[in-house]
């Protein structure tokens, strides 16, 4: 693990994919027909009592204790189409982001670092792991790049339907019955089933924006990690820094994604929520502050270096970003 941390922080320097993934035809089609929902003010569509704590569910305001259930319903509804929809909505780019995310973490322990313990592997917790996209990549990377066949992943998710899809995929994979993957149904804000200081690497991809209490989840991440362990998050950002590109991108996401959801999965509302939830996620700067507040050190933060100055890495014009934190040793 000791050799893993500096490598991970160095690799924050890797250039982000620069794919221009909004085609001209799509722009024309959607720009002319779509009234951007993003400019509408959030509507309070769920009645809440006066003393109840509220939070957002996309653009709606809901009682805090109802949000996890509403999010669960969304993902139960999309579970069986989730992988296909991901490809359609991102034109396949989510695969490049996930590849880059996992490569930058270099999961697994290379033979040169396990001379005294040849069977040693990392213990990885993939939170909001859904259908297992990130877990597969962790295991593939650790086996093929680091020749480590011992590193294991716990795929954890609040939603049993998403986990069921993940189980199905792993059952048909070479990792089936290797003991390298296990599943845990749990809310990321209360990981009571995971022992404190037991995890080397905690990852969460496109999950944290759905959590009700994101700071609690970060504190749980800190608790379960070993000293020197790494927290890594891949998530959409609420806004692109270039206002013109931002406007084009928002037209695409608010116009196309719910429409694709309607056509392919007969479920416009769930996909409407998914794009609205992106708008509600904190900016990169604010989220980095939350990671720091949970106790993490942010590797690679260097005021003199443009690429890593901020402590996070923007991907594809800043549509998504990677954040990392290290639990102090
Ligand atoms: C957009 S999917 C991402 C799945 C996977 N990580 C990926 O990148 O393909 C978001 C996942 O977050 C899960 N999720 C939402 N709220 C959660 C919570 N409070 N605790 C754990 N998982 C949660 C959902 O059930 C869903 O599987």
Walkthrough of the structure:
- The protein is α/β, with parallel strands linked by helices and 329 residues long.
- The chain has a domain at 93-239 and 284-327: Vaccinia Virus protein VP39 (Rossmann fold).
- 41% of the residues lie in helices and 16% in strands.
- It has 11 helices and 9 strands.
- It has helices spanning 4-10, 24-33, 64-78, 82-90, 93-105, 133-144, 160-171, 214-224, 243-265, 268-280, 284-293, and strands at residues 54-57, 60-63, 123-127, 152-157, 181-185, 199-205, 225-236, 312-315, 320-326.
- The strands form 2 sheets. The chain has a 7-stranded mixed sheet with strand order 5-4-3-6-7-9-8, sandwiched between helices. Strands 1-2 form a two-stranded antiparallel ribbon.
- β4, α7 and β5 form a beta-alpha-beta unit.
- α2 packs across α9 (243-265).
- The longest helix has 23 residues, at 243-265.
- It is globular, with a radius of gyration of 20 Å.
- Bound molecules: S-adenosylmethionine.
- Residues 68, 71, 75, 127-130, 133-134, 157-159, 162, 187-189, 205-207, 210-211 line the site of S-adenosylmethionine.
- The site of S-adenosylmethionine (SAM) has 21 residues, from α3 and α6.
């Amino acid at each position: 693990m000791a050799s893993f941390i500096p490598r991970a922080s160095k690799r924050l320097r890797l250039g982000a994919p620069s794919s221009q993934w909004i085609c001209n035809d799509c722009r024309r089609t959607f720009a002319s027909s779509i009234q951007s929902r993003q400019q509408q003010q959030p509507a309070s569509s769920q009645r809440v009592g006066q003393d109840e704590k509220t939070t957002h569910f996309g653009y709606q305001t809901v009682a805090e204790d109802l949000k996890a259930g509403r999010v669960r319903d969304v993902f139960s509804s999309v579970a069986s189409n989730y992988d296909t929809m991901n490809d359609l909505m991102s034109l396949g780019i989510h695969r490049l982001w996930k590849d880059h995310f996992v490569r930058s973490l270099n999961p697994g322990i290379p033979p040169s670092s396990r001379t005294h313990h040849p069977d040693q592997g990392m213990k990885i917790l993939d939170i909001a792991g859904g259908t297992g996209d990130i877990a597969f990549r962790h295991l593939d990377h650790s086996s093929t790049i680091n020749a480590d066949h011992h590193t294991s992943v716990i795929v954890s998710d609040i939603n049993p339907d998403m986990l069921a899809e993940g189980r199905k995929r792993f059952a048909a994979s070479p990792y089936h019955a290797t003991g390298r993957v296990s599943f845990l149904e749990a809310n990321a804000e209360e990981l009571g089933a995971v022992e404190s200081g037991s995890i080397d690497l905690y990852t969460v991809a496109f999950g944290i924006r759905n959590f009700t209490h994101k700071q609690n989840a970060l504190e749980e991440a800190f608790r379960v990690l070993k000293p020197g362990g790494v927290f890594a998050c891949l998530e959409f950002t609420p806004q692109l820094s270039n206002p013109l590109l931002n406007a084009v991108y928002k037209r695409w996401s608010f116009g196309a994604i719910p429409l694709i959801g309607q056509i392919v999965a007969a479920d416009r509302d769930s996909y409407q929520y998914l794009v609205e939830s992106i708008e509600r996620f904190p900016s990169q700067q604010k989220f980095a502050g939350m990671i720091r507040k949970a106790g993490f050190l942010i590797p690679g933060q260097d005021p003199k270096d443009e690429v890593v100055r901020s402590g996070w890495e923007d991907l594809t014009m800043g549509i998504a970003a990677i954040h990392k934190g290290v639990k102090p040793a």
